C-alpha cells in the first residue's frame, strides 16, 4: 500500500475520545455517508482517503478500497483516529466569456466595482490596507504587474537561506505562497488558458497604480495557495492544507471559488478557522448549475457552498441589470448574497504579448467581490470580529429580485456605514 502524508501545522486540538467506545464502523461513518447517495458519489476519489486524528492532525492515505484501508491502516490505529472519509474532487466555478480586452475599452467594462459603490469607499482612503486575503484556488501569476505589488511577503523565508525551511512550517522557500498540488513555492504558468486564480486575485486586490483593472481592495495583501491543476480540478485532500497554510500566514479572509462533493473534514476545518479573536471569514462561490438548492436533494448540492457556517458567506452571481445570472445557483436559506459575476474583467496571466486582462463569468467571479469588500471593511475597522464583518455585508445589501437569503446585491459603501455603526 502506498501512503502519502500531508505535513500540516496543528492549528487546533480536538477533544480526546479515547474514553469513548470505538469500532471500525463508527470512524468510517463519514465515508459511508458520502457513498450513501446523500452526497454526489461521482465526485469521490475511491482510492484516496482523508484520515482525521483525535489530536487534530490530518493525513491522506492511498488504498485499493475502503475495506482494505479499514483492515490494514485504521484497525491498528483505531483509538487515534476520529474520522475516515473519501477524498473528494473539486472544480472551479467560472465560465469563459469574451477573451481579452484592450485598454481603450477597459473603463466602460468595469461595471462590477461601480455598481457595488467601491469607488466611493476608495475616495475615503479605505483601500484594504493591513488586511491579508488568501486566494485558495488555481495558479496565480505572481509576476503580473497588478498582482506582484500585492503579494504578502513571508519575511522569514525572504531573509533566510535558499533551500532551507527558515520558518519551520515544513515548506521550503515559501516567500509568497505555496503550490500544494506540485509542492513547490511558485506554480509555473505557461499559457493564458489557466487564468482562474489570477482572475480571482485581480478582482479582490489588483493594484490600481500598476494597471487598469480596478481591484476591490487595491492595498490588501495576497496569500496565494494553489491546489488545483491546469484544468481547474483539485481535491479536498489538497484544499485542506492550503486553507490551513493561509491561516498560518495571517489571512483574515479566504476566497473559495470552487466546489464539489461533501466532506465532513472540510466542514470542520472551515468552522474551526472562524473561531477566536483572529477568526477567518470564508467566502464561497454558490456554483454555476442554475440550481435552486431549496428544491433539490442534497446529492445535487455543491460544497463548501451549502455548509452555511457562521463564518461563511456564500455568493450568487448577478448581472449588470441587477438580476441573478442565468447560471447562478440560488437559495433563500443556503446562499446569502449576490455580487457581480457576469462578464467580469480582471487580471489574467501576463505572458508574452498578453494584454494582462480578460473576461470570465461565474460565481467564481462574484465571490471575490465579497472577499474584497470584506477586506475594505476590516481595513476601516481592524478590531471588528468575523461576525461583525459578516453582519455588515449582509445587512447592507441593495434589495433586488435575487433568490438569496438577504434578497439583495452587495453594496460596500452601505456596508462601510454599517461596520462603523456596529464595530469599535
Structural class label: alpha/beta
Compute the gyration radius: what is it? Answer: 21 Å
Strand order of the largest sheet: 7-8-6-10-12-13-14
Continuous helix count: 13
In whole angstroms, how far apart are the ends?
Answer: 55 Å
Strand content: 15-25%
Arithmetic mean pLDDT: 91
**Number of beta-strand segments:** 18
Oligomer: single chain
- Detail the poorly predicted runs: 1-19, 98-107
The biggest beta sheet, please? 7 strands, parallel
Helix content: 25-40%
What would you call the shape? globular
Note down, in words, how this protein is organized.
This protein is an alpha/beta fold and 424 residues long. Helix content is 26%, strand content 21%. The chain is built from 13 helices and 18 strands. The strands form four sheets. Strands 7-8-6-10-12-13-14 form a seven-stranded parallel β-sheet, with helices on both faces. Strand 2 and strand 3 form a beta hairpin. The longest helix has 18 residues. It is globular, with a radius of gyration of 21 Å.
Amino acid at each position: 500500500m502506498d501512503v502519502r502524508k500531508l505535513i500540516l501545522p496543528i492549528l487546533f486540538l480536538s477533544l480526546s475520545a479515547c474514553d469513548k467506545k470505538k469500532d471500525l464502523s463508527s470512524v468510517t461513518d463519514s465515508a459511508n455517508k458520502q457513498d450513501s447517495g446523500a452526497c454526489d458519489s461521482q465526485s469521490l476519489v475511491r482510492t484516496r482517503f482523508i484520515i482525521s486524528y483525535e489530536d487534530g492532525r490530518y493525513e491522506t492515505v492511498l488504498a485499493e478500497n475502503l475495506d482494505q484501508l479499514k483492515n490494514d491502516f485504521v484497525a491498528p490505529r483505531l483509538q487515534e483516529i476520529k474520522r475516515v472519509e473519501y477524498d473528494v474532487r473539486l472544480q472551479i466555478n467560472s465560465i469563459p466569456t469574451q477573451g481579452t480586452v484592450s485598454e481603450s475599452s477597459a473603463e466602460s467594462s468595469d461595471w462590477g466595482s461601480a455598481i457595488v459603490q467601491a469607488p466611493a469607499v476608495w475616495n475615503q482612503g479605505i483601500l484594504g490596507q493591513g488586511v491579508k486575503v488568501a486566494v485558495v484556488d488555481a495558479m496565480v501569476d505572481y509576476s503580473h504587474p497588478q498582482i506582484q505589488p500585492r503579494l504578502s511577503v513571508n519575511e522569514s523565508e525572504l531573509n533566510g537561506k535558499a533551500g532551507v525551511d527558515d520558518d519551520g512550517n515544513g515548506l521550503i522557500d515559501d516567500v509568497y505562497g505555496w503550490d500544494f498540488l506540485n509542492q513547490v513555492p511558485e506554480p509555473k504558468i505557461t499559457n493564458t488558458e489557466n487564468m482562474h486564480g489570477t482572475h480571482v486575485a485581480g478582482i479582490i486586490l489588483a493594484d490600481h497604480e500598476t494597471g487598469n483593472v480596478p481591484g476591490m481592495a487595491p492595498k490588501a495583501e495576497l496569500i496565494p495557495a494553489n491546489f488545483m491543476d491546469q484544468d481547474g480540478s483539485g481535491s479536498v485532500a489538497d484544499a485542506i492544507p492550503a486553507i490551513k497554510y493561509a491561516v498560518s500566514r495571517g489571512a483574515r479572509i479566504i476566497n473559495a471559488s470552487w466546489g464539489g462533493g461533501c466532506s465532513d473534514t472540510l466542514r470542520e476545518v472551515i468552522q474551526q478557522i472562524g473561531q477566536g479573536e483572529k477568526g477567518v471569514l470564508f467566502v464561497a462561490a454558490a456554483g454555476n448549475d442554475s440550481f435552486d438548492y431549496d428544491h433539490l436533494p442534497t446529492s445535487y448540492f455543491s460544497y463548501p457552498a451549502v455548509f452555511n457556517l457562521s463564518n461563511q458567506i456564500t455568493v450568487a452571481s448577478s448581472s449588470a441589470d441587477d438580476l441573478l445570472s442565468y447560471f447562478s445557483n440560488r437559495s433563500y436559506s443556503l446562499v446569502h448574497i449576490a455580487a457581480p459575476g457576469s462578464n467580469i474583467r480582471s487580471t489574467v496571466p501576463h505572458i508574452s504579448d498578453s494584454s494582462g486582462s480578460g473576461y470570465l463569468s461565474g460565481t467564481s467571479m462574484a465571490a471575490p467581490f465579497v472577499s474584497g469588500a470584506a477586506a475594505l471593511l476590516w481595513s476601516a475597522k481592524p478590531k471588528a470580529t468575523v461576525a461583525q464583518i459578516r453582519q455588515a455585508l449582509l445587512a447592507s445589501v441593495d434589495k433586488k429580485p435575487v433568490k438569496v437569503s438577504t434578497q439583495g446585491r452587495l453594496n460596500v459603501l452601505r456596508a462601510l456605514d454599517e461596520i462603523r455603526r456596529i464595530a469599535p
